[in-house]
Amino acid sequence: MLDLSIIMYILLAIALIALVFGAILGFSSVKLKVEADPIVEQIDALLPQSQCGQCGYPGCKPYAEAIANGDVITKCIPGGQPTVVKIADLLGVEVPQMDGAAVPEVKVAYIDEAMCIGCTKCIQACPVDAIVGTNKMMHTIVADLCTGCELCVAPCPTNCIEMRPIKLTTQTWNWQFDKNLIIPVVNTTELQKKLVVGEVKDE
């Protein structure tokens, strides 16, 4: 049976070793820390986080990094034109004018409920919880939540999911106003006045 003093020495040695390694790890985390690019983080926050890969990158963060390095800002199909406008505003650039052929067609998923077997594989694949249903019960899509990422299509064993274009309504129409026709509005609640909409013409 070990003496009590020996046990105390062992515990003190273990504590000392843990303290030394903790100090080394703490110093390393500070010394070797890689600062993230703040603009990448801001762009990533504007993207829909569907991680669908339709932009040609494996996820939203890599696409945000590509945008920060000069890639075009119009590749996010789930985000659509509203996301393009937000990114352009963040970067301080003009919103790209895309012709009809270059504009990605925004679609939402649709489930043929007669073919659905309730396997829940599409629910597991959906990154935005836009599919409602339970095991061995019919599923359906909440169109207002669907980002059109298409991640639910491939896992479906009965091929009952298809992507359909969004019907144009007053809510989904891409309203593009001529700034010259909008009365300039200035935000006066901030310390530094900022033009919110419109353009001030030089006299």
TrEMBL record:
Pfam family, one: Fer4_21
Chain segments annotated as coiled-coil in the UniProt record: none
Broad class of the protein's primary localization: membrane
Record's keyword terms, sorted: 4Fe-4S, Cell inner membrane, Cell membrane, Electron transport, Iron, Iron-sulfur, Membrane, Metal-binding, Repeat, Translocase, Transmembrane, Transmembrane helix, Transport
Co-factor binding details: Binds 3 [4Fe-4S] clusters.
EC number, UniProt record: 7.-.-.-
Gene3D superfamilies given in the database record: 3.30.70.20, Electron transport complex subunit B, putative Fe-S cluster
Keyword Transport applies: yes
Domain of life: Bacteria
Residue ranges constituting the 4Fe-4S ferredoxin-type domain according to the UniProt record: 107-136, 137-166
Residues where [4Fe-4S] cluster 2 binds: C116, C119, C122, C156
Cofactor(s) this protein requires: [4Fe-4S] cluster
Binding annotation for [4Fe-4S] cluster 3: C126, C146, C149, C152
Binding-site residues, [4Fe-4S] cluster 1: C52, C55, C60, C76
InterPro entries per record: 4Fe-4S_dom, 4Fe4S_Fe-S-bd, 4Fe4S_Fe_S_CS, Elect_transpt_cplx_RnfB/RsxB, RnfB/RsxB_Proteobac, RnfB_subfamily
Region annotation Hydrophobic: where it falls in the sequence: 1-29
Start and end residues of each 4Fe-4S domain: 35-93
Keyword Membrane in record: yes
Compartment list: Cell inner membrane
Function: Part of a membrane-bound complex that couples electron transfer with translocation of ions across the membrane.
Subunit structure: The complex is composed of six subunits: RnfA, RnfB, RnfC, RnfD, RnfE and RnfG.
PANTHER family: ION-TRANSLOCATING OXIDOREDUCTASE COMPLEX SUBUNIT B (PTHR42859:SF3), OXIDOREDUCTASE (PTHR42859)
Protein family per UniProt: Belongs to the 4Fe4S bacterial-type ferredoxin family. RnfB subfamily.
Name this protein carries in UniProt: Ion-translocating oxidoreductase complex subunit B
Lineage: Bacteria, Pseudomonadati, Pseudomonadota, Gammaproteobacteria, Pasteurellales
The encoding gene: rnfB
